[in-house]
Amino acid sequence: MVYDSESERVILLGGGSPFGGGTDLNDLWAYDVEDNRWRELRPPVMPPAAGSVPAVGPMAYDSESERVILYQNGETWAYNSEKNRWTNMNPLLSPPGAPGRIFIRTAYDAESDRIILFGGRTAPNTFWLDTWAYDYDTNTWTQMHPLVSPPGRMNPGMVYDSAHDRIVMFGGAFGGQRRGDTWAYDYNGDTWTLLLPGSGPSPRGFPGMVYDSCARRSILFGGVGPVPTEITDDETWSYDYDTNAWTQLSPSLAPSPRAWHGMVYVGDDDDDDDEDDDRDGPRHGTRGARDEDCDDDDDRDGTERSRDDDDHAAAGWTILFGGAATRTGPATNDLWAYDSATNAWALVVDEPEDDDDDEEP
What we know:
Layout: E1 2-4, E2 9-15, E3 25-32, E4 37-40, E5 59-62, E6 67-72, E7 75-80, E8 85-88, E9 105-109, E10 114-118, E11 121-122, E12 126-127, E13 131-135, E14 140-143, E15 157-161, E16 166-174, E17 177-186, E18 191-194, E19 208-212, E20 217-221, E21 236-240, E22 245-248, E23 262-266, H1 309-315, E24 317-321, E25 335-339, E26 344-348
Antiparallel strand pairs: 1-2, 2-3, 3-4, 5-6, 6-7, 7-8, 9-10, 10-13, 11-12, 13-14, 15-16, 16-17, 17-18, 19-20, 20-21, 21-22, 23-24, 24-25, 25-26
């Protein structure tokens, strides 16, 4: 699940119960934040079905090319929301391990205009620790060679912190165990750094994680602990790169305990269209930048003020969809929105789908 900032819609591909026990889906949906409505998109060509929910590939939104980039079963696909069209990019080189490499993570580094890929697993228990970068303009995957890499894992939380131009990664699963480490990747320097905050979330895999550009924090929700109990939780945490500190936020209401959910930040952090934008930063205009709609008086500590619906739409939400409490499901289909300014989760009741336009991009 990703946020397409050009069309201002959340894009969702496939899903089902995490490890079976239900129907595996290969459908494409868009959630319009303004209209509060899900619509099935039904493009004429779809990427081949993953075969199972664990094999569903990671997606990231490339704001420079205005494409959703999917890496699945060793194939790289690009989705154009304006034309409602998937394209198989067929690059000459791709990350290894296909088609059995699953539970990979990707994030879009806007300053460098690259999709960063890390991790994954191939059966029975090979956990990958290679780092790759994809350039849509040249249709090229490049293996990076950092001197130090995080230990191998599958499905950590991984986001791009645009204020500091770093990929931030937390946790992940390896076999029945879970990791609780925090790492940062600098594409320009090709370096991974273990950050060692004093405390933080318990080790977990399959959490949801986004970067909130107004709060200048990474936001993490949920996840699943190690076997045999595999307990899911309903904790909300924020990570501040400046202070290298995790903070548990403890909102009064939260989604039910879960993992394997989708989570995106709905904002406009990567808007490069304003030629009069004099913010300091490199070519793609995101490093050190805050969303132009962020309220400078908003200190984002969750205590000072409340916002009406218009404020929410302007300053950004974290949107959460689906997930499951156990690995065999059932999967949920509830939709939640988190406001970091008020430290509040709200259950979103979406409008019914309009059958007359459900195939429109």
